[in-house]
Structure formats: C-alpha cells, structure tokens
Amino acid sequence: MKKFSISMFALSSLMLFGAGRVDPAKDGRLKGAFRLAETNGWIQVHLHGTPAQIGFQHGFLLAPEIKDLQRVIQLELQRDTKRDWNFFRRAAKEVLWPRIEREYREELQGISDGARANGLDLDVLDITVLNAWQELAPYYTAWYENSHAKDVPRPLRGNKSPAERCSAFVATGSYTKDGKPVMAHNAWTNYLDGARWNLIFDIVPKNGHAIIMDGLPGLIHSGDDFGVNAAGIMITETTISEFVGFDPKGIPEFVRARKAMQYADSVDSFVRIMEDGNNGGYANTWLVADRKTDEIASLELGLKNVTLLRSKDGYFSGSNYPANPKLIKEETTFDPSDLSFSATARRLRWDQLMAENKGSIDVEKGKAFLSDHYDSFEHKTQPNERSLCGHIDLSPRGVTHWLQAYGTAGTVQAKVMDAAMAGRMELWASMGHPCGIPFKAAEHLAAHPDYAWERDYLRDIPSRPWTLFRAASMGRTGDSPVQ
User: Fold this and answer.
1) Is 220 exposed, middle or buried (0-12, 13-18, 19+ CB in 10 A)?
2) Domain ranges in the chain?
3) What is the mean pLDDT of each run of 10 residues along the chain (483 residues)?
4) Is the model's pTM score more than 0.85?
5) How far apart (Å, rounded) are the C-alpha atoms in residues 81 and 137?
6) Which fold has domain 12-151?
C-alpha cells in the first residue's frame, strides 16, 4: 500500500478546499501521522500522540471525508426525525458534552481544529453530533419527544425503533480449528452512510493501548465496532432490535465504546467500562474475546437489563436478536415468536452454521459465513433481509417494509480476525457486500423513484476483494506479535 506523505496529501486537500491555515511540513502536531492510498475501497490512517494531537491529525488528514459524511448524516437525521442540525447541536452541547471526559473532549476538539486547519468549518459541536449520531436518533429523540410532548413535530418520526443492523459471531475452544477465538462481523446500515464506512484507524495513543479498528471519518470510535487493541481484546457488536430507552444523565455510548477499545485489557475491564454511566444509547449486544486467555463473552447491554455470558468453549452470535426475556418485555417492542423476522431468522442461521462447522471454524470460514445468503425461514438460498449478508434492497418485502422504514440499506462491509491476527494487530476487511453482489445506485433509484431524495449522496458500492490490514506500529507482516 502506497503511503501519502503529509505534504502530498495536504497539497491535494488544499486544492480542494482553497488556501489552508496550516503548513503541514512545519506543524509538529502532524509529525509521523499519515494516510495510505486507497486499497480496495479502504483508507488506512495512522494517528498517534496525545488526545489533541490524535484529533488534529484525524481532522486534517480526513477533512474532505468529514465534510462529506457530515452532509449525509445531516440529511439522514433531518429525514428521520424532522429536526434540523441545530436541534442536534443543542443536544450535543446540553446533554452530551457535560458528560464527556477530558481526554475525549480534547480529541474531539482536535478533530475540529485539524479540519479547520485544512479549510473545513466544523466546530466541536458538529463533530460531537457526528460521533453521537447513532444514539441521538432514535434513542435521544424518542426520549426528548416523550419528555416534551407539546413540542413534537408531525408527522412523528423520531420514535421509530432502531433498525436491524449487522451480523456477527465469536467462537472459541472446540468450535474453532485451533481452539482459539475467531471473530467476524458485517455492517448493515443505510447505503448513504455505509458507502463511507471505509476507514481503517491505526491509533497509538499516549495512554492506553494501541488500536486497529474500522470506522467513519470524524468519529473517535468505530461506530459499527470491530477492532482489537494491543492488550489482545477483540471487540464487535450488533444492535438490539426495537430497543426503547435513554438516560440523558448517562455517559454517551460513543465515549464508552472508544474508552473500552483503548483501555480494556480483559473481559472484566471491558464490561466495567461499558456499564459505567450507561445511557442506553445505541444499545448493543457486545461480543468480546481475550486472545491471552481464549475466553469469549457476550454482553447484552440494555439500560435496565444487562446480561453477561462467558465461555472458553462455545460461541456467541449477533443478529440484532434480544436474548434476555426480561429485556425483551421491559425495553423493546420485539416479538420473538415471529420466525420470519430478520433478527430471528439470522439467529437461527448462525446456530445452523456453528453446528455444521464445529471444530473447523477459522478466518476463511468466517469470510464465507459473512457472505451467506440462506433464508432460514423459507429454507432456500436468497439474498434478502433474512440472510447473514443483508440485501434489503433485493428483498421481495423490501419495498413495502424495509425501504419505507429505513431507506436504502443492507450490508456495506465485513471484517474478520482470529487470535493470531489479533496478536499481530491485523484484520481482514471487505468493502461492499462480501458475497460479490454490487449495489448500483442509478439502477436502484430508477426502480424506486420515491428515494430520489438520496440521489445527491447515494453511491455505487462495488463488491471488493478481502484485504489484509495491519497496524503500522507492528512493522512488516511477519514481525513479532504483540505479547
């Protein structure tokens, strides 16, 4: 992969934005940071130093991508909630910012400073909204509208439940080929923002552990949460379907997710960080593995109900299915008896695949699982909203239900790693549907003219080959792994 020097990238950025305020060759905050040339749809970015330095490097190197994403998120939030960008800026200022600890305030401010140094006028509240977008809508907006009943816009959209997003598993012991953890995840989201979920963040912070994770421009956390740190903690998650709940006095989910990725050195410390100050925003079932002990865990993190399961010989899957009956009853509108529902159908498919492949699960099997098109409800192979590789746009039910509720959505990328890769700070990543089916924006818009509102930002999402990424701090492939 070709590496752009700071000066090369700065020149291209300045050509895009006009004269910048910083000479990258002279600004010490940028020393040693870089972005690599795009590889199979992915951009790897190396950041290091203090929180302010990491943020500044991030904002400067990714200024064009941050602005592009901000426009998309603003469009999505406005459409989904009928609220303008200033509504969310106020929420960032009044609800989120007071509960963000100093380290991450400095990094968020650094992103704004770096972006502004490269000609982009977004302040720290704009950056905070980007980071919290998944918990602001629908979690915060639902709470807000219930708390301000007289101030509810019509038609009411802010209370729609969280969309089903992502398929994932983690396995260990007798289920895997070498008896050690294997983890895999594919991200489901709107194709608008999903086409931009193409960053590999390679971060060496002054405090805590080095990280490699996927992510979005401007976000200090992964967002779909797949990564590993130098302590050997492997992390991913899937959203809890139809969850309702938010505590405005809690710590933002994006802060806890980043802190756990950076500081967790065991399953126990991961759980402690995620539970501390839990605000219920972006409620997920977290899958975790410790490559040092071969232990895996599932943390179903509701606001009122928290379920932790652990194993050194088994598997946990994620398909947006809420498992705890008490959580289902008290915190969701989910119907577990509906076997046709995507989350339930995909959960059953995970159980089938784990049973059929027990003892042989490895990275290559993980890649194949993430590409799977079997519909466990109709008992046939068909790419749709019930397949592990999600194709909501191809579902015969998509136009009448999924597209109306959530827009143009499905799998946008996939990642997999095993314990040995985690030790080398490596991951495999595939941009686009890992099955090989591309998404073509013009064809989709022609077939669904009601979605013309997406036209200015909807992109083709080609299916790209699997690509191996490694943290720059680990040197060349084949060097000694993290101990």
Assistant:
1) buried
2) 12-151
3) 42 38 77 96 98 98 98 94 96 98 98 96 98 96 87 44 80 98 96 97 98 98 98 98 96 98 98 98 97 98 98 98 96 94 96 98 98 97 95 76 63 98 98 97 91 93 98 58 29
4) yes
5) 7
6) Penicillin Amidohydrolase; domain 1 (1.10.439)
